[in-house]
Amino acid sequence: MKSNERKIYLQRESHFSSAHKLSSKNLTLEENQKFWGKCSSLHGHNYKIIVTLYGEIDAETGMVFNINLLKPMIEKVVNTMDHKNLDEDVEFFRNNLSTAENIAVYIWDNLVNDIPNKLLYSIKLWETDRNSVIYKGSNP
Ligand SMILES: Nc1nc2c(c(=O)[nH]1)N=C([C@H](O)[C@H](O)COP(=O)(O)OP(=O)(O)OP(=O)(O)O)CN2
Ligand SMILES: [Zn+2]
To answer: Residue 140: inside a domain, yes or no?
Structure first.
């Protein structure tokens, strides 16, 4: 592939709605309520994510990566969580609390091997309008 040596960020937004609760298996109901407050009860969020790729603009295609290829990769991961109870329906969250942090890690881990040439740069995830995380994992 020819490169014109100009690097650029490419972003794709996606959404999903999931139920979850934050509670530790090692704590009693009362202890969980004390630690996590209202979040220890089952509730839901409309999550928003932005997946960012970073790389050189290919001189022939004019693209870093074809968004038409990126879309189904993101949808595949998002569909494992959309309209699901994260804690019960997604294996990863049986052993990892379904915090925004861990959801971003889950998305990264499920995308990084599909996106070629180490292009995956970051996952930004909003749990609410006011609460968000940005994860930059390792890209082997
Ligand atoms: N570090 C984190 N802290 C918290 C997380 C998280 O994922 N990472 N998650 C929660 C709960 O999931 C909770 O549902 C957050 O919702 P809520 O408190 O309603 O959200 P807001 O802060 O946007 O609501 P306010 O109206 O601003 O209080 C808790 N902590
Ligand atoms: Zn929540």
So the answer is: no
Residues in the chain, total: 140
Question: ipTM greater than 0.85, yes or no?
Answer: yes
In a domain, 16, yes or no: yes
The pTM for the full model equals: 0.96
**Cα of 53 from ligand 1 centre, angstroms:** 27
Instruction: State the Cα–Cα distance between residues 74 and 1, nearest whole angstrom.
Output: 24
User: What is the tally of structural domains in the chain?
Assistant: 1
Express each pLDDT in 13-40 by its tens digit.
999 999 999 999 899 999 999 999 999 9
11 domain residue, yes or no: yes
Q: Is 99 in the pocket of ligand 1 (CB under 6 A)?
A: yes
Give a yes or no: residue 111 inside a domain.
yes
Select from 124, 128, 130 the residue to mutate for testing ligand 1; criterion: most ligand atoms less than 8 Å from CB: 128
Instruction: Answer whether 108's CB lies under 8 Å from 77's CB.
Output: no
